[in-house]
Fold this sequence. Notes:
By secondary structure, the chain is of the alpha+beta class. The protein has helices at about 35-45, 65-100, 145-210, and strands spanning about 45-50, 55-60, 105-115, 115-125, 130-135, 135-140. Helices cover about 50% and strands about 20% of the residues.
Amino acid sequence: xxxxxxxxxxxxxxxxxxxxxxxDKVEDYVTSRAEVDGTMKSFQEMISYDRLTGQCVRQLIQxxxxxxxxxNTQRRAGGLKEKIPDIQKTLDMVQFLKSRKPGADxxxxxxxxxxxxxxxxxxPPTDEVYLWLGANVMLSYxxxxxxxxxESKLSTAQQNLENCxxxxxxxxxxxxxxxxxxxxxxxxxxxxxxxxKTEHGEDQVAGEKRILPxx
Length: 215
């Protein structure tokens, strides 16, 4: 019996998500009804990667692997959609500060201290900015370096979002493929049961005819 997903050379998309097995001929996966349960379980096999060791770990789960990955990818895409506008807004401000000439008049502005508290500030021309890097860490950067850093972060976030959206489309296709594969194997089993039942009934009738007394 061919077991989908167990080959080390199995095809994957660029992010390592495996293709679902496409069942064109059920006979390529099962040769008897006894193999149906094993094939169904193999369709549910999930390939996960240990983030700490980088080793490939295989584990059977009751819910489909693609649905699990779809939820995680949707969550990651949602985070990026919130993050990208913030990076863009910060980059726009850095570029504005960079465009101001030495000796220009200071500008008055307000900045956010928290969700409901703002403060007024006077900002003179400057060649230095402070950027939050996360985890309560703020560092000072020359304006030019800050612009380069933010452009890099923005480009990476946009590429990651594009990858997430591509992966979501890919996962939906694999979910559909897997549902079709499961249905085909199930229908094949039903057909085999009916065939066995019919053949058993015919054999029983033939046996009864052989033992009838001659008229």
